[in-house]
Design brief:
Length: 169
């Protein structure tokens, strides 16, 4: 890379017009005062205060979280395969403390093999985990896929998980 001096034969101009010393301090003080005045005026406007409160204050959101604690799996037994379904529920600001979980295990063609309803008691913001065993899947379905479905009774949340029997141990 060549310098400006080599290309033009004259030294590069310095920014001599930038204020230094007391002039710079005065400009900084004026800018700080102007920003403080604008912030004070903005905070006097109710809409601005509301938006700031919304953006910096955690507002309560009421919902219930439903998820698989781990991936569901299949366990081989003498009578077929059992589906092991670890499910967790977290209550976020809702009034309910007891939840019903509806679980079902079906074959790939939709035939329900087993179903169960489990009730869990949830504390606010604390995950509650449970493990449900469904099945066994009869041997006549031992070469296909099974589907685990979990729903939270009275809520729109549902979970679906496909398990392939051929690749399970």
């Amino acid at each position: 890379m060549t310098s400006v001096l080599e290309e033009t034969g004259t030294p590069a101009p310095h920014l001599e017009s930038a204020p230094r010393g007391p002039a710079r301090r005065v400009g900084l003080v004026i800018t700080t005062v102007a920003v403080a005045v604008l912030v004070t005026i903005a905070l006097a406007v109710p809409r601005v205060r509301l938006e700031l409160r919304r953006s910096y204050t955690r507002l309560p959101a009421e919902y219930t979280e439903l998820y698989f604690g781990k991936d569901p799996s299949l366990e081989r037994t003498p009578s077929g395969y059992l589906a092991i379904v670890p499910v967790s529920v977290v209550r976020h600001g809702t009034g309910a403390t007891r939840y019903a979980l509806d679980l079902s295990l079906s074959t790939g063609d939709g035939q329900v093999v087993d179903s169960s309803t489990v009730t869990v008691d949830a504390e606010p913001e604390v995950p509650v985990a449970t493990v449900v065993r469904l099945g066994p899947v009869p041997s006549r379905f031992a070469s296909g896929a099974t589907v685990v479905q979990v729903s939270l009774a009275g809520h729109p949340q549902t979970l679906h998980y496909r398990l392939d029997i051929e690749h399970s141990s």
